[in-house]
Amino acid sequence: MLWSRYRVFVKDIFQLSYPIILGQLGLVLMGVADTIMVGRLGKEALAGVNQANSLFFMTSGLTFGVLFAISTLVSIKVGEKKASGGFIIYRAGLIVSVLLFAFQFGILSLLTEHFEWLKQSEAVNIIAPQYLNIVNWSILPMLVFLNARQFTDGLGHTKISMVLTLAGLVVNVALNAVLIYGFWIIPAMGYEGAAWATLISRFAMMFAALWYVRFSKFMKTYVPPQMPKWSEVWKETPGVWKMGIPIALQTFAEWACFSVSGIMVGWYGEIQVAAHAVALNAASVTYMVASGIGMAGSILVGNGYGEQSVSKIRKVAHATFFLMVIFELFNALIFVIFNRQIAGLYGVEPEVMPLILPLFLLAAVFQVSDGIQAAAMSLLRGIKDVFWASIISIFSYWVVSMPLSYYLGEILQKEVYGVWTGFTVGLLVASILGVYRFYQKSNKLLFV
């Protein structure tokens, strides 16, 4: 009886989520490919590129978070039977993307110029800024692509971004092979080759996404024959900022926690940074799957919000949490049983391996909490409760996780293991508070 009540929603979430998951995996596998291929250049190159990407990832929490509002706003339009109105929101997202580019580029340029502020090793202080000086220019295409992806995902057509992202992954890996190691008349560029590969592939993804939204036959249903006036588009931008800024604070609180944790690990030397990079990189693959399930749940909850159906919202939430727990328990088992084999894929140097294996066991512990908090934050976004989602994230990661990581890692000298224990506890707190807040808020929804 219970399964029959939720079976249709589990099916809908799966159908929406698997293209999102594959697309998410495509994005994170670009980082995995960089880590694996750069890792063969030595632990210094691996540590430098990882720290650069941690900084890039941290600041992206602010910019990505704002654009995450696009899919929710569009999905609500779909629920209201006004899907064509989502195109104006998409156009507003383009304006927001340009402004976010200027913001993130300025911050990263300052930090790149003064990377020594982060107190990393001498090698990392040289390698990371050189890598960032190239990758920083990929911010604009990355944001424009994300805006288009959020638009199509919000419409429920999640396969579009999946195809474009996986195509971008193929381009990225091929360019990595050529530019990192050299081919024919093209000289080996080392870790800078990985940066150029990322930049070129992101531009390719941006142009493909822009063309698809504007000119493909499939999108003609949602694109008006006459482009909306920019005055109409400007009227939608405050709504994007109003919803997007709290989401940005939430994503930044979480992503910055992991990035700063990586910087803290950098205090303990390149071997520990390399171990941290590999373990966290592998864990990020499973997180992208969890994130995809959460995003699918958010889209369906947004539809329910637009339809003003509390029953649908709650049933979608139950189905989302059910799928998430099953998936994350499976992931935890994989990390426990196959930790050595997974670590071996990265081809790290022998002295790094003994540090990596215990980190995989810690990753197995935080899998379930990480998935549940990702689902809870996405579902809160679907019912527009973004303020409390940001408060929960800031508390969990910056009041609980970061002080605990510092205390265990630095004061008790547990180093990388102490840092990982800290953010494992933070994820547990976020999952508990996130689930509590969602059900509290959904019980109080009153539609008139």
Describe this structure as you would to a colleague.
By secondary structure, the chain is mostly helical. 83% of the residues lie in helices and 0% in strands. It contains 14 helices and no strands. It has helices spanning 2-39, 43-79, 86-113, 122-135, 139-154, 159-181, 191-215, 230-265, 270-307, 310-337, 339-344, 353-382, 386-411, 415-443. It starts with a helix and ends in a 5-residue tail after the last helix. The model has no long low-confidence stretch (mean pLDDT 81).
- Which class do the helix and strand fractions yield? mainly alpha
Radius of gyration: 21 Å
Low-confidence stretches: none
Strand/helix succession: HHHHHHHHHHHHHH
Share of residues in strands? under 5%
| Overall residue-averaged pLDDT value | 81
- The counted number of beta strands is 0
Principal-axis shape equals globular
The largest pleated sheet is described as: none
Q: In DSSP terms, counting alpha (H) and pi (I) runs of 4 or more, how many helices? A: 14
Helix content: over 70%
